[in-house]
Design brief:
Elements lengths: L34 H16 L2 H12 L9 H17 L3 H12 L8 H13 L3 H14 L9 H10 L8 H12 L12 H13 L3 H10 L3 H9 L11 H21 L5 H12 L3 H17 L10 H18 L3 H18 L5 H12 L3 H9 L8 H18 L2 H13 L5 H10 L3 H13 L4 H7 L11 H14 L4 H8 L13
Helix pairs in contact: 1-2, 2-3, 3-4, 3-5, 4-5, 5-6, 6-7, 6-8, 8-9, 9-10, 11-12, 12-13, 13-14, 13-15, 14-15, 15-16, 16-17, 17-18, 17-19, 18-19, 19-20, 19-21, 21-22, 22-23, 22-24, 22-25
Length: about 500
């Protein structure tokens, strides 16, 4: 569903860390006999502000290596290590930056603050230290609940996603989700729901047999995706009865919330973007196009120094992505391609998300039977630019392209890689198998995913009946034919009905 749109990039893992302008606040308490260390710290701060990280590193190491360093107040010692970590990270030395933060943890007494843990949260994903990233976000939510809202939702979702890599029976993931829930995490000025995090906590409670906690969470769920999962997965029927009418009403209520958000936040592009997405999902593409066009035209007409939206840096590429999907829904495929190319160019130029729109554009090209362009679009994406889901989405585009070029060996190689990571990227794997017209393997994957409690709900979401595409390409029609043939198989149907049910949903699936 929609959350898959936002997890392809390795969000927040490679951005440079800004230097605090108040580095000397703590240093003012340095004892008289250590005044010369204060001078070195002042020098380090000046170097950091000037962007001269080499000199800053030298100054900070002079302080830390001095025999009197241990006599400084604990918070000053932690400050020195944190500033050293910032300088090292901005010098492209993340391992050394991490080591500096580790040394800070051994300073007597706990003098770590919000800035310290925020820096750990930035470094740990870059080094694929999943446990450390989860711990950092858990500490931030537990100790600084009034500031947790400052952290971008993409970073939070990425860390929660990475918690699945920790082999501890989901204990770390549970602590993180409970901390976020206790802090009432709602990202500032985004408009996007984080209710799926509550649903993941609900799933953990159910798996542990903690029925009262599970029931409390289930009763508070209002998003349509949450209600659908409660309805279609037999494990959850006992916690809340959900009807088709309630699901339809939930979609309309979501649209109303997003309209209200857009009205109350006229300087955020996220508002009309969410409204347009809802309208398109609900088979109202003409209305959706009007909403997103008005928002984008408002941005385009405004002077460069007086842009109407404050979140252009993070939302413009996705607003263009939304417009592309709407145009596709209307059968205006050539226009959809051009707008998505604009979205790609915006995201690449900004440098925040180097992969999402390129993957989407590659997928669009395969739907248009243009495999060589698809391969070119995803061919130069580096592995460290995407998380595992993003990497598997790239392989999925390759599978679909190779199926069209007739390069069977390459297609099988990409499929094998995806099958090795089936649990992490079920949705792109399903599309890849449809492109390969491998109904036997797709049936096996569906059944395996249904039998695994961790992936069952997502597997059930993928077998539901959605509104048909009105303007499908021949490629899309062929994929859907293979999908329907697979779902009707004598081995697949009983597996679905053993664990859940298939219902008709009043929305359209993601088009390509």
């Amino acid at each position: 569903m929609r959350q898959f749109l936002f997890v392809a990039a390795l969000v927040g893992a490679s951005a440079l860390i800004p230097v605090s302008a108040t580095a000397l606040d703590t240093a003012a308490r340095v004892s008289d006999q250590s005044q010369y260390l204060q001078k070195w710290l002042a020098d380090a701060d000046s170097h950091l502000q000037a962007g001269d990280f080499k000199k800053a590193i030298k100054s900070l190491r002079t302080i830390i290596d001095n025999a009197q360093f241990g006599s400084l107040p604990p918070d000053t010692q932690v400050l020195c290590y944190r500033l050293l970590s910032i300088a090292l990270l901005n010098s492209n030395a993340p391992e050394e930056a991490y080591d500096a933060l580790e040394r800070a943890r051994h300073v007597p007494g706990d003098a770590t603050n919000y800035e310290y843990w925020r820096l750990r949260l930035a470094i740990a994903p870059r080094l694929k230290k999943h446990q450390d990233a989860v711990e950092a976000l858990t500490v931030l939510a537990s100790r600084f609940p009034h500031r947790i809202q400052e952290i971008d939702r993409n970073i939070v979702f990425s860390i929660v996603y990475s918690s699945n890599e920790i082999q501890d029976g989901k204990a770390s993931k549970r602590r993180l989700l409970e901390a976020l829930q206790s802090a009432h995490y709602t990202p500032q000025e985004s408009g996007y729901s984080v209710e799926s995090l509550s649903f993941e906590l609900f799933e953990i409670y159910v798996s542990k047999g903690e029925t009262e906690k599970a029931a409390t969470v289930a009763a508070a769920l209002i998003e349509p995706d949450s209600l659908i999962r409660l309805r279609i997965d037999k494990r959850y029927n006992a916690y809340r009865h959900v009807t088709d009418a309630q699901i339809t009403a939930a979609y309309e209520a979501q649209l109303a919330r997003h309209r209200d958000f857009a009205y109350r936040n006229p300087t955020l592009l996220a508002g009309p973007d969410l409204v347009a997405l809802d309208l398109n999902d609900l088979d109202r593409p003409e209305e959706a196009l009007k909403v997103i066009d008005e928002a984008l035209n408002k941005h385009d007409r405004a002077p460069v120094n007086r842009k109407p939206y404050d979140d252009v840096a993070t939302r413009l590429n996705w607003a263009l992505d939304t417009k592309s999907r709407i145009l596709w829904q209307l059968g205006r495929h050539a226009e959809a391609e051009q707008v998505l190319k604009m979205a790609r160019d915006v995201s690449v130029a900004d440098g925040r998300d180097m992969v999402s729109q390129r993957i989407n554009l590659g997928a669009l090209y395969t739907a248009l039977s243009r495999p060589n362009e698809a391969l070119k679009e995803v061919g130069n994406i580096r592995a460290n630019q995407a998380n595992l889901y993003g990497q598997m989405s790239i392989e999925g585009v390759k599978v679909c392209a190779y199926a069209q070029t007739g390069e069977t060996d390459k297609m099988k190689a990409s499929l094998d890689l995806m099958l090795q990571n089936a649990k992490a990227a079920y949705s792109p794997l399903q599309t890849a198998l449809l492109c390969a017209e491998d109904s036997d393997m797709l049936a096996k994957v569906i059944i395996d995913q249904l039998e695994d409690p961790d992936t069952r709900t997502y597997a059930l979401m993928n077998v539901q009946t959605y509104l048909p595409q009105k303007k499908s390409t021949p490629v899309q029609l062929a994929r859907e034919a293979t999908r329907q043939k697979t779902l009707a198989r004598a081995d697949v149907q009983p597996a679905i009905l053993k664990y859940g049910e298939i219902i008709s949903l009043p929305i359209r699936p993601i088009p390509y």
